Amino acid sequence: MNKTLLFTLLISFNLCSQELWKTDLDNSSIEYSGSHFIHNWSAQNNKISGLLNIKNSLIENIGVIAKVEDFNSGNSSLDSNAMGAVEAFRFPNVIFRSNSIEHNGETIYIAGSLEFHGIKKDIEIEAEIEDTEDLIKIYTTFRVKLSDFEIKRPSLFLKKIEDEIAVEINLTFSPS
Predict the structure, then answer these.
(1) pTM
(2) Is position 132 within any domain?
(3) How far is it, in rounded angstroms, from Cα 131 to Cα 58?
(4) How confident is the model at residue 37 (pLDDT cuts 50, 70, 90)?
(5) How far apart are CA 49 and CA 13, in angstroms?
(6) Which of 12, 66, 84, 166 is deepest in the core (most CB within 10 A)?
(7) What is the pLDDT of residues 5-32, one digit of tens each?
(8) What is the domain range of residue 76?
(9) Which residues, other chains included, contact 77 with Cβ-Cβ below 8 Å and sequence gap of 6+?
(10) Total domain count, the chain
(11) What is the CATH number of the domain that holds 71?
């Protein structure tokens, strides 16, 4: 993973008397799915880099980076077309940085910015959290409109793919 981007996430956190936890690469993934009138598809990325900033036993900040090229649908032709549509060589990363996090039991409400295709958008996410002594698991699903990120939707049989894609995130963090 791009060490410069990970370092940027690190320095964006206020590090006084706080703990940093990092993603467990074996147990973290981001999956997206989309649809077209002919078929549905999904792709998964298991090479997620991320950090949690813990202060007073609560998550204070989250930062996550995923390389666009690491999303895999199991269909190389589909993956190649997707990489072209999102201009993966020009915009190689999807980045999320939290701005604020509210805790309510096993649910957290995260406001932050999602950077995709060179565009940053503010988003709000509700996520479930499972916290043990040595692991923190975060699970969420949300929807994103490709048009919000100025992505030209590919067409098949003269009909464009749906504008909205579903995103499912499973992240596991452990102490650094």
Answers:
(1) 0.86
(2) yes
(3) 10
(4) confident
(5) 15
(6) 66
(7) 555 555 554 545 589 999 999 999 999 9
(8) 3-9+19-175
(9) none
(10) 1
(11) 2.40.128.110
